[in-house]
Specification:
Layout (H helix, E strand, L loop, with lengths): L3 H17 L3 H9 L29 H10 L3 H10 L4 H11 L9 H27 L1
């Protein structure tokens, strides 16, 4: 029984049985949101590490990084610039989010940098090249 649908079904049945046995006042609190159900690991089981860690602020303001990327003339120089900033993956994710760059759920540092560069520099360079071809 490792199928997620079967596991979810079994869990929901157990939760339903638990909720059905609650006193009326506790059930009302759950219904209004005044109380919540919490998953507590069994004794001896280590809780899963929290992923909600605070991201250190960027070394420079996002506007400054965005301006610098807009001034850089090649993709390679933009990649080098972001590597030189020594940003962590969470910082790069935050930068991408602020710049409006969509990222897949799990991306390596180099993949995030490539996406940011393609969005900030690559599209501008592609557009300029197309404009030059159209002018001929």
């Amino acid at each position: 029984m490792t199928d997620p649908a079967d596991l979810a079904h079994d869990v929901l049945l157990k939760v339903a049985a638990f909720v059905k046995a609650l006193p009326a006042d506790q059930l009302a609190d759950l219904a209004t949101g005044a109380a919540t159900l919490t998953l507590v690991p069994r004794a001896g089981r280590a809780p899963a590490p929290s992923r909600a860690t605070a991201t250190k602020p960027l070394s420079r303001p996002v506007a400054e990084i965005e301006t610098m990327l807009a001034e850089i003339g090649t993709r390679a120089a933009a990649v080098q610039y972001l590597h030189d900033e020594r940003l962590t993956v969470p910082q790069l994710r935050e930068l991408a989010k602020t710049l409006g760059v969509a990222l897949p759920g799990k991306s390596a540092k180099d993949a995030i940098i490539t996406r940011i560069v393609d969005s900030a520099v690559g599209r501008r360079l592609d557009s300029a090249a197309i404009g030059r071809l159209a002018a001929r």
